[in-house]
């Protein structure tokens, strides 16, 4: 059930998009000890983004999960930043990552909440 949303202005062809999403999805699933088949990872291409008064080549990543363990957040931050920077040819200093721990009562799948 973890979800990762990557927003970036870096354009990738469909093959590289799929590879990037797959790598990031696998890393998050492994770090959280969740089955990869329940991971959702999305890419939201942006026309423009600014970062520190400069434009271009940056990314904003959101990671959401039920019961996101605090002790895993630094490991996730490092791994996600590395993979996003590598996959999208970005400097790691141009990547923000935000983590959200979602209540089970606020997350649904197949028409039912998890809590």
From TrEMBL:
It is found in: Secreted. InterPro entries: Macrophage_inhib_fac (IPR001398), Tautomerase/MIF_sf (IPR014347). Pfam families: MIF (PF01187). Its EC number is 5.3.2.1, 5.3.3.12. GO terms for molecular function: cytokine activity; dopachrome isomerase activity; phenylpyruvate tautomerase activity. The keyword Iron does not apply. Keywords: Cytokine, Isomerase, Secreted. It comes from the Bacteria. It catalyses: L-dopachrome = 5,6-dihydroxyindole-2-carboxylate; 3-phenylpyruvate = enol-phenylpyruvate. GO terms for cellular component: extracellular space. This is L-dopachrome isomerase. The lineage of its organism: Bacteria, Pseudomonadati, Verrucomicrobiota, Methylacidiphilae, Methylacidiphilales.
């Amino acid at each position: 059930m973890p979800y990762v949303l990557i927003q970036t202005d870096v354009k990738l062809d469909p093959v590289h998009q799929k590879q990037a999403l797959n790598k990031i999805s696998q890393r998050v699933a492994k770090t959280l000890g969740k089955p990869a088949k329940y991971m959702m990872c999305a890419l939201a291409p942006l026309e423009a983004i600014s970062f520190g008064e400069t434009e271009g080549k940056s990314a904003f990543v959101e990671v959401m999960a039920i019961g996101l363990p605090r002790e895993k957040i630094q490991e996730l931050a490092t791994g996600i930043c590395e993979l996003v920077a590598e996959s999208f040819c970005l400097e790691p200093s141009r990547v923000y990552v935000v983590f959200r721990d979602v209540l089970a009562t606020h997350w649904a799948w197949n028409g039912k909440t998890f809590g």
